[in-house]
Amino acid sequence: MEIRVATFNVSMEAENYVPRGTHVSGEEMFAHLATGEHPQIGNIAEIIQRVRPDILLLNEFDYHPDAQKGIQAFVKHYLNQPQSGAEAIDYPYFYIAPVNTGVDSGHDLDGDGVASGSGGDAFGFGLYPGQYGMALLSRFPILKDDVRTFQRFLWKDMPDNLMTTVMDDQGKPWFSEQAQQVLRLSSKSHWDVPIDVGGKRVHILASHPTPPVFDGPENRNGKRNHDEIRFWVDYLSSDNKAAYIYDDKGTKGGFKGERFVILGDLNASQTEGDAFKQPIVNLLTHPEVHGSFVPRSEGGALHSPQNPLGAMHTAAWRMRPDYVLPSQHGWKIKEGGVFWPTQSDTLYRLIKDRNASSDHRLVWLDLAMAE
């Protein structure tokens, strides 16, 4: 059996749908989802219809507890409708869950002297709860009763974490003792979502670590990105290394399964960008991860003609932050790519600039299930 698995940072968050500097309530995107008429969302849907993944993670898709206003509206009003000649596509199964963005921590986390409750003082940066959320779409049944989420896992509970090394310019801890007791590791969430694919369980390991920028010399975001990626390295490792991990239901330990696919915008590259390189290197070279296959595109290569790594890029800002990483066992990689049409391609209109769709590209792999 062969399936196509993909990840796509769609930039479907409220700030993307109002003029720059305008106050956002968090409802702006959902209003557009109800109409089925927004051209940028239509382009995002068309990209998905063109690539036609069977399982798809959406990063930066605002979370709404009422799925009918959020992910189901996107499926019904956009994906189920042909976009500019592309064939409609349906996803009868989805998974959403709360994220840490915009959730008040009760502490001053950004160091401005005020515990404002949102933005840099939220558990994950966000102007309202649910901003930059995640959603998983599937053409196969999602085993929701067996999902593990790690939204509330505390950063302090990761052994040898880098939170304790975040210092101000006086050499004092950036985060107060009280803040260190409640600060969560995940800037959004980490999910382990099992899916029934032809009678076999496939675990989708989804996340969206914080960008390792937008901070200062203390590098609090860079160090958090380091540990958010390291979480998956530990989760897939031996029982002893993963013993510290607990999920939101209190179940302890690491990965318990066979086949998996790691999906998401990890905001890190082993060769470029500001992130610590070791965690993503450790993930790509993990004995349980097939990290040697790199999806490529001609469009990415032409976007950065002087950069030999351009074909690997998955974002317009010239880096590879987005990953589809299958397990070493249980799969054979058949093909893969990055949806990045060249300027001579009629589909270039879908990615020509930031307002056409997203500043990220959809990344996909075709995987054949092996015994």
From TrEMBL:
Signal peptide stretch: none
Molecular-function GO terms, alphabetical: endonuclease activity
Superkingdom of this protein's organism: Bacteria
InterPro entries to which the protein is assigned, alphabetical: Endo/exonu/phosph_ase_sf, Endo/exonuclease/phosphatase
Domain Endonuclease/exonuclease/phosphatase: 6-360
UniProt keywords, alphabetically: Endonuclease, Hydrolase, Nuclease
Protein name: Endonuclease
Source organism of this protein record: Lacimicrobium alkaliphilum
